[in-house]
Design a protein that fits this description.
It is a single chain. Strand 3 (79-85) and strand 4 (90-96) form a beta hairpin. Helix 2 (38-49) packs antiparallel against helix 6 and helix 3 (54-68) runs parallel beside helix 6. A two-stranded antiparallel ribbon has the order 1-2. Strands 3-4 form a two-stranded antiparallel sheet. The protein contains seven helices and four strands. It is α+β, with helices and mostly antiparallel strands and 185 residues long.
Length: 185
Amino acid sequence: MPLNARAIYPSSDPEFISFPSRRSVVHSVNGIIACTQPLASQAGQRILRHGGNAADAAVAVAAALNMTEPSSTGIGGDMFCLFYNAKEKKVRALNGSGRLSKNNTLAQMRRDLGLKPGEHGDIPVRSVHSITTPGAAAGWVDTVEKFGSGNLSLEQILTPAIELGEEGFPVSELASSFVSHISPQ
């Protein structure tokens, strides 16, 4: 039987996925990285090879995905991290979601939206109040500082993604399919 999308996903709806696999695996003897984009996986593997740990590699992968698959993750968005420390046998969490601007208050927001005291209302999607300050970049820094190996600087961890941006890269079939339906508005 040939290895194609139909053999793996025998769905009657081939629009679901037109590729045999949604994950490309990069093999390693000192760890493994799996994500939707092989070049991002290689970025994480490179960090492991240079003495980084899982937290360092995760930040490298997220940054590389920003370059290679921007529709999957974004520096202009949020991030969350669950990190298992094997020595302590503890799971730690990090919330890298964006925050409301410092000078904004509930009273100010209600005034801006024209809501009377006690009146319920919705924040319109296109309102300035529907946007938070992106938390991903600060979350990456926090992840490396709190859970990182300490063997690599943030610059070293972000270098694979920076190189992808500066040198260019081939767009994968999956990333191409994500943006092929986008039309200018």
